[in-house]
Design a protein that fits this description.
The structure holds 2 protein chains of 2 kinds.
Chain A lengths: L2 H4 L5 H5 L2 H12 L2 H17 L10 H23 L5 H14 L16 H5 L2 H12 L3 H11 L5 H8 L3 H24 L3
Helix pairs in contact in A: 3-4, 3-5, 4-5, 8-11, 9-11, 10-11
Chain B lengths: L2 H11 L2 H10 L7 H13 L1 H23 L4
Helix pairs in contact in B: 1-3, 2-3, 2-4, 3-4
The chains are: A mainly alpha, B mainly alpha.
The complex binds zinc ion.
Chain lengths: 193, 73
């Protein structure tokens, strides 16, 4: 009896099918097309080589995403050792950018507007293009934390550990990230319509 | 002073900036019962923060959709 009949092998097309999703995932987190490409390539190879271990109790996509997550974390760790993101100036200017959104008394300088029906924006290709642009324009360190939270769905404890910052600092960075992404969308999209 | 009155006094001192921090943190973890109360009181009277909360939800949904479908849907 061949092995095939016991557990049907995941075929390579089934693995390859998820390449684009994995690429978007890696690109959002790594913001470097080459590095994202490498991480995905490594993931697909690992997936092919390890397909016998695929248990089938999660979807192929979830399984591959789990592998990719490790590749991404490895890359980020390697990178932080080799060329750490320096806080310094950009950190101060980002803090200033948040200050600029509020008055002295803590009120909104410009009140966030009503963005209306979310589905209407989400169904619009032009909106998604603006969204991509705004996400890509986020400052590096802020984006790294934000994508760890929103794309990789790590909890703050793990994010703080990876970024080597305190929990409070982590919240500050994520707060800043949402404010700045919101500001960009307000300016480039919702404020215009 | 009743419990509600105490909450109201604290809420008066919380600014939109403070509340925006809570709204953001809500995407990370559950707020404490007291924080939830502060938030609810403030949102009741503040359109800006209510919009901010909805905006951050849309941002989360947009990111998920972008991930799943890309910008060309
Ligand atoms: Zn407010």
């Amino acid at each position: 009896m061949s092995e095939e009949t016991i557990s049907p092998r995941l075929d390579s097309a089934e693995i390859e099918r998820h390449r684009n999703y994995l690429l978007r995932y890696a690109s959002l987190q790594l913001r470097d097309a080459g590095a994202a490409e490498d991480a995905v390539q490594d993931t697909l190879i690992a997936g092919l080589e390890g397909r016998d271990r695929f248990a089938g109790n999660s979807s192929v996509k979830t399984w591959l995403t789990g592998i990719l997550k490790h590749k991404i974390i490895d890359h980020i760790r390697r990178q932080s050792r080799e060329q750490p993101l320096v806080a310094g100036d950009s950190d101060a200017s980002e803090a200033e950018a948040v200050d600029a959104l509020f008055l002295e008394n803590g009120h909104w300088r410009q009140r966030p507007s009503d963005w209306g029906d979310p589905d209407k924006a989400l169904e619009n290709k032009a909106f998604m293009a603006v969204f991509e642009q705004c996400a890509k324009n986020m400052p590096a360190k802020t984006a790294r934390a934000f994508m760890m939270r929103e794309v990789m769905e790590l909890d703050t404890t793990d994010i703080c550990k990876e970024l080597d910052v305190s929990t409070t600092n982590c919240w500050v960075i994520l707060h800043r990230a949402r404010l700045s992404l919101r500001e960009c969308l307000e300016m480039k999209w919702f404020g215009k319509s | 002073m009743s419990g509600n009155e105490v909450v109201r006094q604290i809420v008066k001192k919380l600014t939109c900036r403070d509340i925006s921090v809570l709204i953001s943190r809500q995407h990370e973890e559950k707020l404490t019962a007291v924080e939830k109360l502060w938030l609810r009181f403030h949102l009741f009277i503040c359109t800006g923060c209510r919009n901010f909360q909805n905006n951050t939800r849309l941002i989360r949904a947009a990111l998920k959709q972008y991930l799943d479908r890309g910008k060309d849907q």
